[in-house]
What does this fold into?
Amino acid sequence: MIAEACWVNGESVSDIPVTDRGLAYGDGVFETIRVVAGEVTLADYHWDRLVASCERLGIAVDITVVQRSARRFLAGREVGILKVIVTRGSGGRGYNPKECDSRLILSWHNLSVYPATHWIEGVELYACSLRLALQPALAGIKHLNRLEQVLARAEWDDDRYAEGLLQDLNGHLVEGVMSNLFLVKSGILCTPDLKLSGVAGVMRQWILDTMPNRGITTKIKADVSLQELRQATEVFICNSVNGVWPVLAYAGMQWMPGSVTRQIQSAVFGVLHV
It folds into this structure.
């Protein structure tokens, strides 16, 4: 029999204290993980990012406890989404983060169902008006305060767009609302630098680590402009749940899925559907 769909600190409960700092201040981090045959995909990447994010914020976490709890939680489950949240825990009123014990929240969700055309033919992106703030202390971290993404996603309600694309305050391209951006230019696979804003996605990192060994040159590029996007021969977005979607159109620009995108799609499919 499968346990309840939510655990808090290893117990089958579905509520947290109102004093939790994740609720009060967004003081915590999370991972959204695709599960196949009861196993976490891209496990090392997710656990490494969780640890690194907690270290950046000064939140104590024992990754062996997280992994052990996740294995127990996933017993009897097959395919879906495991969401792992680590908050700083409960504290008194005020911002001072001292003397808190971190809280681990695990929850189970169904995979979102998207049209097969997203993978095969590609998607159109919405041009979000919201601009991402520049904050190097938080850049790259998947922290709990995702109000920028909430506001950006609220900008469109049209099935024509599968995702929105975000720029920073300087007008440079950063990422999608729920994905990272890649473009192919002069045969090189490029992705925006995320030192000032954005989320350093697990799938993004896997692609950067893996593709050079498969003959594809990769580059992390600062200050990606709309002009560079216009000059790209291929564009795609990715995340660790949905994989790789070719981009067909954005703000009057158009592309077709190319050989580099197809090669990466094939490799990613093998990782997310094992």
